[in-house]
Amino acid sequence: MQYESNAILDKLPRHLKQFIKPQNYDDYTAIDQAVWRYVMRKNVDYLSKVAHKSYLDGLQKTGISIDHIPNMYGMNRILKEIGWAAVAVDGFIPPSAFMEFQAYNVLVIASDIRQLEHIEYTPAPDIIHEGAGHAPIIANPEYAEYLRRFGEIGCKAISNAKDYELYEAVRHLSIIKEAEGTPQEHIDTAEEHIAELQRNMGEPSEIALIRNLHWWTVEYGLIGTLENPKIYGAGLLSSIGESAWCMTDKVIKIPYSIEAATTPFDITQPQPQLFVTPDFAHLSKVLEEFANTMAIRKGGLSGIQKLIDSKELGTIELSTGLQVSGNFHSVIAHEGKCVFFQSIGPTALSYREKELVGHSIQHHADGFGSPMGKLKGINLAIEDMSPMDLKAYNIFEGQTITLEFEGNVKIAGEIITGTRNLKGEIILITFKNCIVHHGKKVLFKSDERLYNMAVGERIVSAFNGPADLNSFDLVHHKISSTTTKPKENKERQKLERYYAQIRDFREGTGTTISRHKVFDVIKNDFPEDWLLSVELYELAKLNGDTDFAEEIVSHLETVKQNKPKVGHLIDDDLGLVNKSLVS
C-alpha cells in the first residue's frame, strides 16, 4: 500500500489503484510552497470577484490552504464529509480511467507542482490545477453529482484506435514543456506530432466527443449569463493568466449546449471561446442528452461496429441481459441488424455485471461467436417463447435441431441444456456436435466440444470495458514517459535554503533569520529570481520597514528590465501586498 486508504478508496477496483502513487509531501521544496502561495493569494483575491460562489466556500470545506500545498491525507479527512476522496497520480492518466475515478467519487490529483518559470500556466496537470481548481467546486452537491455522473457515463465511452496514441502524445508534450531545459525544437516536434494526429483522427469517437464536453465544462466552464458569467472550470480557476483573459471581450461567450461535444480544443493555447451554462442542473441535462447518442444506450449494429473499430476490450448486452465482453472482431449484418457476432481472444459472459459460472475467459479463451436475432419465418423471438412454445419448436434438451435465423445464418446440433436469467428467459442454449453456417461458409464446427449460443433478439447496449471487472486482468497500464523534477544542483539547493529561511521567518519558526542578509545574497547571487524578493517585500511592509521595502522595489525594477515577461507578475504581487495593508 503506497497511500493511506479510506472507506471510499477501499471500493476502488484494482485496475484503478495501479495509477495511484504516494504524494511524498516532503519532496515539495520551499520554492514549490512559494509558487503555491503566490498563485493562491492572487487567485483568491481575483476569483472572489469572478468565480462562482461555490469556489471560496469550497476552499474552506475541502481544507485547501492559501499558504500551504495541500496534504492528500488532510484533504481526505475533510473530503469524506462530502462523500469524496482524493488520490495522487503521475500527470495525465488515460481519459477512461480518469473518468472512472470520478464515478467512484474520487478526485484525481497530479501531485507534481509547476515550476516557477511556468507559474501562470502549465499544460501539465499539477496540484495547483487539480487541488485548487477541481477540489473546491465539488463541495457544491449538484456539481459533485454532475462530476460523478459524468465519470459513470464517460468511462463507458468507446474509443477508436488513435485515441490512446493522442493521449500519449499530449502526455509527452505536457511533460517536456514543464521539464527544465527542454530544447524548443523538441517541443515544436511534439506539438506538430499532436497536430498531425488531430488532423488524421477520422470520425471522432465517443471518448473524443465526451472529452470535449469535459473540457468545456469541468475544465473551462463558465456559469451564469453571457453578459455576466462566473468561473467554475478548474483550468480557469487554476490559471492566473487565463482566469483574467477569459473575462475580457476578446473571448467569445457561447450558450452551453450539446454542440460543445463537437467543438475541439487546443491544450497548448488560451481558448478563443468559452461555453456558459445557466446553472449546474443544465450541465446534467446536456450530459444525458449526449448519453442518448452513445452506444451504451443505442446498442444496435452501430454499437458493435464501434467496438470492432476501437480494437479495445468492450461489452455488448443483448435484449435478454446477456453480456459478452471481449475484443470484437467481426459482425454479419442483415437489414441493418446484427445476425452474428464474433470476438477474438479471451471473452467472458455475464448477466447484470456478474460473470456467469462456467463462462470465464478460461472457458472462452479463443473468442466467442453466436447467431442472434429472430428465427426465419417466426415472429416470436426465442427469448419470448414460453415453455410450450419452445416445445412446439423442438427447442429443448436432447433434441437434434436446425435453427435458421434471419440473414441466412443456421445452427445445427444437439441441444444439451439452456441457461436462464432471473426473469426465467433463456439467455444461452448449449449444443454439442454443432455446426454454424452463414450461407456456404462455416463459422463454427464442433465435435464433442460444447457450443454456447447466445439468445437475444437485438443488441441493446455496447460500451467500453468488461461487464464484470473481475473477469479480466486489467492491471497492465504502462506509460511511455514520466514527469520530471528540476535538477537538484548546488545552486538550486542554495536558493531553496533561502526560500525555506524566509518561509520559516514568516511562519514564526525562524525569527533569528536576517532578511537583509538573505536579500543581499539573492540580489548578488540570484539576480533573476523575483519571487523571494516579493515575499521579502511583503514582510518588510508588514513590519513597517519602509526603507527596506523601497530597496527591494528598486531591485525588482532591475529584474523587470532584464526579464520583461515577469514584470506583470511582480507588479501584481506588489499591488496585492499594498492592497492588503490598506484594507
UniProtKB/TrEMBL annotation:
Keyword Plastid (UniProt): no
Residue ranges occupied by any Biopterin-dependent aromatic amino acid hydroxylase family profile domain in the UniProt entry: 1-340
Entry GO MF terms: iron ion binding; oxidoreductase activity, acting on paired donors, with incorporation or reduction of molecular oxygen, reduced pteridine as one donor, and incorporation of one atom of oxygen
Sequence positions that bind Fe cation: H129, H134, E219
Cofactor entry: Fe(2+)
Gene3D superfamilies: Aromatic amino acid hydroxylase
Highest taxon listed in the record's lineage: Bacteria
Record keyword Glycoprotein present: no
CDD domains: arom_aa_hydroxylase
Swiss-Prot/TrEMBL keywords: Iron, Metal-binding, Monooxygenase, Oxidoreductase
Any one of the GO BP annotations: aromatic amino acid metabolic process
PANTHER family to which the protein is assigned, alphabetical: AROMATIC AMINO ACID HYDROXYLASE, PHENYLALANINE-4-HYDROXYLASE
Record-stated family: Belongs to the biopterin-dependent aromatic amino acid hydroxylase family.
Designated name of the protein: Aromatic amino acid hydroxylase
Species name: Aggregatimonas sangjinii
Lineage: Bacteria, Pseudomonadati, Bacteroidota, Flavobacteriia, Flavobacteriales
